[in-house]
Structure formats: structure tokens, C-alpha cells
């Protein structure tokens, strides 16, 4: 996303008749860890460079970080202290809450960023939970029969959530503001019924654990991971139907073969899955440490079988980027579509555009 953010900042600073005196940058769903400030750092540096390029005084920048209230804001706040020391003209703040609701005052934001967050739904599809339809299940034949129903429910939930996201951001963006967003998904030519969702690898491991009695089958049947990977055409359609934005550009780069696949091992896949999904698994099945130990053990055993790892690595990856515009507001979307366990989805914060 670095290039897209830098180009967006350059556009912001060059399209106005007057060079901006201040800018507000928000990162939605920043999470935590060493990359928590990556996007806002890119933005702040790009603004600084534009000031030097146009020989203008440094712009006052306000950086606002948003994530769900359960995130560890204490660690991030400590990182912000060091960030401010290296960016003297920047003030910072944190805003807890869901980005599917209002977070900021109307017309207050100049740049919104969000990396690898929007494929997470606000909740699992209610129609599946209400009708007690498992998202996965142990029986393969039954699973295949209801796959279209399950994926349809997830697609409708994504449409509802993403539409709401657009509506909220349209109110919060200032005139001439920009938004750069990344999310996981699939190429349009890949049928949803044939597409392997990011969570399916997790479900496969849990299914094996349920079949062996390690976890309760009823609990497994009621387990829903709130993730959906849309196609680029789905994004296009939702943006057009919502009506606040018009698409200016959409990029779908060709997938690249990954030399890093040689470094992928069953142990690494298992631990990547654990890192990405442990909070959801623990929340549903309980906090017993033995559950996650067995999860890793089962995953390693699964991908240690002859040919299974090669089959997993053969799944295609793609990336999509689009630019949409609403009146004086231009919206930039860079959507990273995952290569199920490598190069994309679980390497959070790494976007190839």
C-alpha cells in the first residue's frame, strides 16, 4: 500500500489551489504489533516530503488510530510516544470502536487507511446461526451440498457491512479527502462455490479434531468465523449500488509465483493459523491451552502428509485495486486477495499492489 498512499498524498497536496495547512489521517483496524503504525508512518513521511517538494511549511498532521475496544491500546500508545518524537509536527490519538459505525465527526478526515481488515465481518451471518446451519461440518457430502447456501449467507453479510462502511466514511471524509483500503478476497472469474475461504483451512483442522472427540461436535457445528473474501466485481457492484462513490480505477495485478513457498513448512502454516485465529477459537471452544496445542499438532500432521503441502501452495493468489470518486472526494481501494496461507492473507499488513 506504500505506493498508493504516497500517490494519494501527492494528489491531495497538488490538487488544491492552496497547500493544506493541516491534515487528519485515520488508520481503521490498525491491530497491534510491530506494524501497527506502518500506514500512518508512510502517510506522515509522504506529507513531509510533499512539503519539502513544494517548499512549504510543514503541515500539522493529526494521526488517529482505530480498532475494536479489545485491542491492546496500551502497547500502541507507548509506540505513539516514540512516533511523535520522530515526527515533530504530528499529534496522535486512539479511537476505539467498530469501523462499521460512526467514528469521527462529519467532514473531518483527509485520509483514511485500512489494511487487511474489511474482510472481517461485523458478525457471522444471522441466517445461518438462526437456522442452525453449520458453516462447515464434518460430513463432506453434506458440506458440499450446503456450500452454496453458506457462501451466499456470508456474501449477503459482507454486502451489508461494506455498504455501511461506505456510508459512514462518506460522512466523515472532508471534501477532497481520500481513502486507501486493503482486504482479502478472490478474483471474479473464480466461482464462490469453488473458492477456498481463508477460514476453511482452520475449519478443516477443527473438523478433524471434532471427529476424534478432541472438541465437542455441537460446538464445532455452531462455530462461525466472520470472514468473507469478495471478488473485485462484488466490490465494484456494492460501491455502485451504495451510490456515494463512483469508481475511477480498479487494478487486478496478475498473481506472481512465490519463491517463498520453498520456506513454507507444516509447522509454519500451523503457527500462522494459530496466530491469526487463536482468539476466535479460544473464545468459542474455551481457553484451555490443550485445545491450541492439539490444533497446532493436528495442523502440522495434516500438512505433513505427502502432497498436501504442495496442494495447499498451488492455490492461486491475486490482488485488486480500485479508485472510486464521490464528487470532490476520491476514494482509493487497494484490495489484496489472498493466496490461502502464503504471500497474502495471513501476512497481515503486507499488500502487493
Structure description:
The protein has eleven helices and eight strands. It has 353 residues and is α/β, with parallel strands linked by helices. Helix 1 packs parallel to helix 2. It starts with a helix and ends in a 16-residue tail after the last strand. 39% of the residues are buried.
Order of helices and strands: HEHEHEEHHEHHHEHHHEE
- What is the typical, i.e. mean, pLDDT? 81
The proportion of residues in beta strands is 15-25%
* Structural class by SSE content: alpha/beta
Helix content: 40-55%
How would you characterize the largest beta sheet?
Answer: 8 strands, mixed
* Beta strands, count: 8
Coarse morphology: globular
| Uncertain regions spanning at least 5 consecutive residues | 334-353
Rg over C-alpha atoms, rounded to the nearest angstrom: 21 Å
Any key phrases for this structure?
353 residues, alpha/beta, 8-stranded mixed β-sheet, 11 helices
Topology:
Elements lengths: L1 H14 L6 E7 L9 H16 L6 E8 L5 H14 L3 E7 L12 E6 L11 H5 L9 H33 E9 L18 H12 L5 H5 L10 H11 L3 E6 L14 H20 L3 H16 L3 H6 L4 E9 L2 E9 L16
Helix pairs in contact: 1-2, 5-8, 6-10, 9-10
The gist of it:
The protein has 353 residues and is α/β, with parallel strands linked by helices.
